[in-house]
Design the sequence.
């Protein structure tokens, strides 16, 4: 029996990036806000200090800063012909937990999507014709444009202090930046990070092949920075324990290092940690949210009434909560009806390992940050002519090697025995002279009719609620694309001087044990009409107007970049709509 | 601003009342002069930081007493100074209040312990004391009976305070120095009076009185060492500009340092709410205070093996934030090179920060509040001694070495502390 | 509830557990003998770098199996349990510790059956390698446990023990990191980022392992 708490103006489910941005914006607007986070409080000095943050076994292999499947997991199958089984230990993706969410442990790769990405179906149809797209590919236009979001990309980048070289400022192409990027209003707030040997060699080789390499936009800062909220970040020290880890010296942009110090001082904000939201409550007509119900760490149930609900719980759990709360219609892949759960996507990543002459090359791979690296964008989005290639989409290709951590980042040439003296020798000989990049080709994942989320019929969480079920596999489009991109990367490795290259293009079936970034998207997509989307262009639920669903769950398909920059931009864009329009007149912002 | 809650409400009522009587007739209740006095009293109460002792944190009852004050003689409980007539000071006359505040005599003639800094507040003018009284009268009355007799025999014999006062108490309001500027005098009035800086920053005799010959040269209390705040070039504020000092007091962070520990609370609830002119005045005054005559003496010889080990520990555990050259990062990781905190004669604060970690203060002007992690789990006594000796004597710094014994004693003392 | 500012508790920290050599926590003496012999074949000693046994790989595995790793504390362990496709990942109802126990028992029996009552540890080097290759390709069958699964698990755990920070019991004296050229638990490479293609000369250190401090 839930105890009812005093009403708040707004309740935020999940205190990660979007939860923090929305909390900061709404408290500035004078609202009394509470954020409910199912994980613990996390802070630099007490949770990942310099004396023990660099522990690969604990944080990278045992995932200590992450959600544990014991607390919440999903089930997985490749297609409807299989029985979905639980993901008992994480593999293909790794989900954040605790204050800061994924923003605590991320790489901090901070990209913007391309202008064409936001109008993908229109753009591709215009260029290649409607029959170029497979019939079961369900990609859509977003309902927002790059120009709509540009000021908010800027807002997120200046919040973080993102380090980079602009490629296109107000239409003028800039030397050293990404010539394909959408026009930005001003340069990055800090210069790009310094690069390591392997990264620089890649850029030289890429130039020789006629490409235009640029430094990866990095939320690991190149210099100390004070953001517009007055919060200070430090200079990244290239420790090589970045992604999967917390940053010990305040140099990785996260909610902790950019927003929370200001947010938590406000008298109109409070965070409740280790409290898990069970469902969003609706009024009797089911058309208006009345708040949420959550369970605290002692097992007591509480009802938190609120006028406004922000669902900021990460893509998967946003969709799960919508389904568990009976909001919107669940997607049925047979009929194609229902919006909640459809257009679920991930990321298509691949790599090639380059082995170099150990007497000539020493890459010092351990000197790195989570978003160091040099990239090329010639093969992203529709930046290249696909008409003879038999696929759509693409991704950035980069030497974006983030670490030389021994458990994760050692490789032996193909054909080396898996154990014994030869293995040991190969490890010794190749550690410093191999180029191992987790996601050298970081490419798009289009949406398909038969790739979706729904509630599992069998498996339950510790509260007895059905787990989210993922039905996902690769389609020919992504397989062809991955092979193409991997070959391009291998060419550059060759040009760099690799003596042996082990190509690893992405191949099906989708394997839930193989890490492929945590960029899960879709399931509650945005669009300009309610019959093809779950939320409108401001991330407002079509079904429940006082509910806004933040995060990558809004992406109708995933583009060839890391999603967080776009997630941040959408959060600021949505917050602006709430502050300037919704609060003055609560109700649907779009009438379609 | 935390202390203002209930009184702000009352002031709003006063303003409304004032507005209602715009015709010039006196409204019943408060008139314009009284309002000004109350507002001045509110500001002076913040300067005097009465809340630091008289408000129990987290109680929601401002100035209602009950907070434990750690002294070398035991723990005292601060009394209730809300206007409650039975358990607070509501029934006191103005004279009784002024006597308590500036002479250390309680209502029934009993002597107050000098934890109540009457030795400093004696400098406060009568007008200012009355303004404080006027403000305190507007604070919400809270029923909270506090037993102020906490010390064991024989320290509970208050008559003993008469002897103590003979030795250590010079009553009398502040007398401006005609050879100094108005700003200096304002700074002196604040620092030596309501600011009572010396209560923490001046070394004490065994009886707990100020060692006046070593004024403001630092004092160890409550697990910290309140730093030397004279203008000593090495241990004091000699390398700080007036702006550095004013910034430190106003926003808790400056080019040279950041407030933490006991000063974090003082900055947070007192100095950050003071006006810029007053802070600059205090800074001006402090910059004119002479340091110890021994501070220019040659530093003692150093154990080179400790320096060598310390350098290696520094490179592996400290440089990632404080940088190899000791310069840190402004507003985030304080510089150790040239740092007064690092070069205090007594290393207690350094030991505190290394063994237990520390969060710096957050203010509107500097909200980041970066924190230093604890190293007690990793570093042994001799290792901490080595790295502290190293930072105290590198980059132009010079200060006595730290011994493993000192570290061990501090480690054990900190385990006992609950704060 | 967190309100009003960033929380702070003096002295707060959650440092990792540091393994000390105080006997086996999980393995029986016979299991320990088998596993030590096994890891020493997976990672044989050579003149430059010790083998898996002297590097403490068996100690690493032992301590992990005795703790949350062995108990699969982080795993979703609710049923129903059924085998799925390779892509669906491990679905065993047994914890990692239980699997080791079961597999090692079956392995011991299989060795004694094949080699006239000799346990794995008592075999010659060549015989040991043959057995391991047989596990690897599945030809050396274990009663009640999949040989390939056992091999993959112990290989992964051995290599992890070899290359993890020494606080976990393996990588003794930072031997593995010295072998490959990884300087270890450093945090500040600002002075090195621009020194392309140069050998980093920093001393090799672990989280709780700084031999350079006393040199």
Sequence:
């Amino acid at each position: 029996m839930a105890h009812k708490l005093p009403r708040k103006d707004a309740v935020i489910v999940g205190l990660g990036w979007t939860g923090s941005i929305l909390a900061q914006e709404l408290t500035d607007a004078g609202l009394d806000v509470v954020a409910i986070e199912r994980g613990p409080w996390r802070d630099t000095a007490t949770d990942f200090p310099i004396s023990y943050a660099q522990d690969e076994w604990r944080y990278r292999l045992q995932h200590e800063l992450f959600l544990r499947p014991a607390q919440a997991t999903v089930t997985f199958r490749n297609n409807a012909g299989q029985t979905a089984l639980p993901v008992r230990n994480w593999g293909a993706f790794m989900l954040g937990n605790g204050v800061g969410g994924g923003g605590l442990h991320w790489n901090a790769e901070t990209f913007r999507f391309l202008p064409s990405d936001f109008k993908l179906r229109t753009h591709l149809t215009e260029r290649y014709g409607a029959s170029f797209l497979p019939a079961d590919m369900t990609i859509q236009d977003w309902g927002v444009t790059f120009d709509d979001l540009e000021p908010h990309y800027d807002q997120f980048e200046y919040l973080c202090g993102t380090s980079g070289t602009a490629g296109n400022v107000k239409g003028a192409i800039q030397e050293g930046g990404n010539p394909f990027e959408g026009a930005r209003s001003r340069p990055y707030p800090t210069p790009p990070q310094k690069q390591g040997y392997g990264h620089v060699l890649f850029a030289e080789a890429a130039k020789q092949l006629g490409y235009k390499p640029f430094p990866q936009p990095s939320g690991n800062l190149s210099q100390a920075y004070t953001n517009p909220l007055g919060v200070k970040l430090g200079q990244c020290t290239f420790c090589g324990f970045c992604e999967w880890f917390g940053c010990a010296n305040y140099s990785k942009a996260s909610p902790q290092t950019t927003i929370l110090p200001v947010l938590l001082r406000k008298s109109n904000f409070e965070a409740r940690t280790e409290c898990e939201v069970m469902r969003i409550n609706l009024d009797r007509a089911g058309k208006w949210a009345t708040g949420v119900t959550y369970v605290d760490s002692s097992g007591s149930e509480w009802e938190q009434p609120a006028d406004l609900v922000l669902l900021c719980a990460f893509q998967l759990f946003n969709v799960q909560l919508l389904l568990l709360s009976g909001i919107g219609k669940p997607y049925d892949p047979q009929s194609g009806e229902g919006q909640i759960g459809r257009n679920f996507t991930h990321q298509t990543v691949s790599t090639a390992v380059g082995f170099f002459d150990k007497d000539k090359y020493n890459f010092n791979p351990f000197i790195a940050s989570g978003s160091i690296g040099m990239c090329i964008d010639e093969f992203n989005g529709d930046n290249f002519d696909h008409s003879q290639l038999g696929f759509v989409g693409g991704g950035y290709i980069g030497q974006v090697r983030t670490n030389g951590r021994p458990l994760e980042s050692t490789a032996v040439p193909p054909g080396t025995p898996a154990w014994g003296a030869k293995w040991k020798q190969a490890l010794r000989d190749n550690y410093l002279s191999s180029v191992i990049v987790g996601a050298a080709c970081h490419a798009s994942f289009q949406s398909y009719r038969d790739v979706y989320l729904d509630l599992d019929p069998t498996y339950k969480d510790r509260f007895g609620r059905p787990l989210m079920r993922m039905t996902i596999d690769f389609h020919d489009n992504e397989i062809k694309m991955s092979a193409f991109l991997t070959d391009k990367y291998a060419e550059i490795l060759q040009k760099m001087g690799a003596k042996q290259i082990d190509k690893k293009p992405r191949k099906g079936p989708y394997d839930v044990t193989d890490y492929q970034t945590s960029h899960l998207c879709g399931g509650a997509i945005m669009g300009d009409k309610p019959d093809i989307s779950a939320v409108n262009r401001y991330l407002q639920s079509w079904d429940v107007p006082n509910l806004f669903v933040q995060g990558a769950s809004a992406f109708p398909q995933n583009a060839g970049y890391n999603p967080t920059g776009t997630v941040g931009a959408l959060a600021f864009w949505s917050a602006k709509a709430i502050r300037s329009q919704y609060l003055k007149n609560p109700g649907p912002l779009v009438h379609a | 601003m935390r202390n203002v809650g209930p009184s702000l409400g009352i002031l709003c009522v006063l303003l409304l009342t004032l507005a209602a009587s715009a015709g010039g007739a006196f409204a019943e209740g408060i008139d314009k002069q009284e309002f000004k006095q109350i507002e001045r009293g509110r500001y002076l109460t913040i300067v005097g930081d009465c809340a630091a002792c008289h408000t129990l944190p987290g109680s929601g009852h401002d100035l209602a007493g009950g907070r434990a004050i750690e002294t070398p003689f035991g723990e005292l409980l601060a009394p209730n100074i809300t206007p409650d007539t039975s358990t607070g000071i509501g029934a006191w006359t103005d004279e009784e209040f002024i006597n308590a505040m500036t002479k250390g005599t309680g209502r029934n003639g009993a002597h107050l312990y000098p934890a109540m800094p009457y030795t400093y507040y004696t400098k406060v003018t009568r007008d200012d004391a009355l303004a404080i009284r006027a403000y305190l009268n507007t604070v919400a009355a809270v029923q909270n009976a506090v037993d102020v007799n906490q010390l064991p025999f024989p320290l509970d014999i208050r008559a003993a305070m008469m002897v103590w006062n003979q030795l250590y108490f010079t009553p009398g309001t502040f007398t401006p120095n005609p050879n100094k500027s108005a700003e200096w005098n304002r700074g002196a009035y604040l620092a030596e009076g309501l600011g009572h800086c010396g209560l923490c920053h001046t070394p004490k005799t065994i009886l707990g009185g100020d060692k006046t010959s070593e004024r403001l040269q630092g004092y160890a209390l409550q697990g910290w060492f309140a730093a030397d705040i004279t203008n000593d070039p090495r241990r004091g504020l000699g390398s700080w500009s007036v702006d550095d000092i004013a910034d430190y007091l106003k926003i808790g962070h400056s080019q040279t340092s950041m407030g933490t520990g006991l000063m974090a609370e003082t900055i947070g609830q007192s100095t950050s709410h003071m006006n810029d002119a007053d802070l600059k005045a205090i800074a001006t005054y402090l910059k004119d205070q002479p340091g110890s005559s021994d501070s220019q003496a040659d530093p003692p010889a150093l154990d080179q093996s400790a320096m060598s080990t310390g350098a290696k520990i520094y490179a592996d555990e400290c440089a990632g934030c404080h940088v190899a050259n000791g310069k840190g990062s402004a507003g985030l990781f304080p510089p150790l090179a040239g740092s007064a905190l690092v070069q205090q004669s007594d290393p207690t604060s350094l030991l505190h920060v290394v063994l237990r970690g520390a969060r710096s203060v957050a203010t509107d002007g500097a909200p980041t509040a970066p924190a230093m992690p604890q190293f007690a789990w990793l570093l042994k006594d001799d290792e901490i001694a080595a790295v502290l000796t190293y930072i105290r004597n590198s980059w132009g710094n010079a200060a006595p070495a730290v011994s493993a014994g000192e570290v061990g004693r501090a480690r054990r003392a900190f385990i006992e502390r609950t704060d | 509830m967190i309100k009003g500012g960033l929380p702070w508790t003096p002295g707060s920290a959650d440092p990792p557990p540091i393994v000390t050599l105080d006997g086996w926590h999980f393995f029986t003496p016979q299991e320990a003998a088998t596993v030590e012999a096994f890891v020493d074949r997976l990672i044989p000693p050579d003149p430059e770098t010790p083998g898996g046994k002297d590097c403490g790989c068996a100690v690493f595995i032992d301590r992990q199996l005795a703790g949350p790793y062995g108990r699969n504390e982080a795993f979703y362990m609710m049923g129903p349990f059924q085998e799925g496709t390779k892509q669906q990942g491990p679905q065993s109802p047994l914890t990692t510790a239980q699997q080791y126990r079961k597999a090692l028992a079956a392995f011991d029996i299989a060795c004694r059956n094949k080699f006239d009552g000799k346990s794995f540890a008592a075999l010659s080097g060549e015989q040991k390698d043959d057995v391991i290759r047989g596990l690897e390709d599945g030809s050396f069958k274990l009663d009640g446990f999949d040989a390939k699964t056992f091999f993959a698990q112990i290989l992964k755990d051995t290599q992890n023990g070899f290359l993890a920070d020494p606080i976990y019991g393996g990588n003794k004296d930072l031997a593995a990191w010295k072998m490959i050229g990884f300087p270890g638990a450093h945090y500040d490479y600002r002075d090195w980022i621009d020194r392309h293609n140069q050998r980093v000369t920093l001393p090799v250190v672990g989280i709780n392992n700084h031999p350079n401090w006393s040199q």
Remarks:
- The CA atoms of residues 311 and 537 of chain A lie 15 Å apart.
- Residues 3-80+89-124+137-165+193-582 of chain A form a domain with the FAD/NAD(P)-binding domain fold (CATH 3.50.50.60).
- Chain A touches chain C through 83 residues (CB under 8 Å).
